[in-house]
């Protein structure tokens, strides 16, 4: 969904043809970060660094998995702000508690366990999420 406050910035952030320097210049703007978060594919390290510098935990939710490099995943894991460090995990766990369907790969990544272990988790909400996803 396009940011309604500044749709041009949001749209430019989503544009697959936008070069890295443009994305870095968009990172200080909330609408630009919103658009970048909706981009498909991998984000370059410099763009991720700009998002971490200017964004917050909402921005950090989209910075996980194959979307970012292993180096940037380590950078996020070591981030001094726990809200940034745990943004993705907290988001997934919140979706589980709200009974919102979420992919099995996301559950495995957030909980740090394979689906075969998650299926017998102590939490009934998590077991139900695994059942819905798998």
What would you note in describing this structure?
This protein is mostly helical and 134 residues long. Helix content is 61%, strand content 0%. It contains eleven helices and no strands. The chain has helices at 7-14, 20-26, 30-37, 45-54, 57-60, 70-77, 82-85, 87-97, 104-111, 115-118, 124-133. Helix 1 (7-14) runs parallel beside helix 3 (30-37), helix 2 (20-26) runs parallel beside helix 4 (45-54) and helix 8 (87-97) packs across helix 9 (104-111). The longest helix has 11 residues, at 87-97. The radius of gyration is 16 Å and the shape is elongated. The two termini are 27 Å apart. The model has no long low-confidence stretch (mean pLDDT 93).
- Classification by helices and strands: mainly alpha
What radius of gyration results from the CA coordinates? 16 Å
Rough outline: elongated
The major pleated sheet works out as: none
Q: What is the end-to-end distance?
A: 27 Å
Order of helices and strands: HHHHHHHHHHH
Please give the oligomerization state of what you see: single chain
Number of helices: 11
Helix content: 55-70%
Mean pLDDT: 93
* Poorly predicted segments: none
Overall number of strands: 0
β content, as a range?
Answer: under 5%
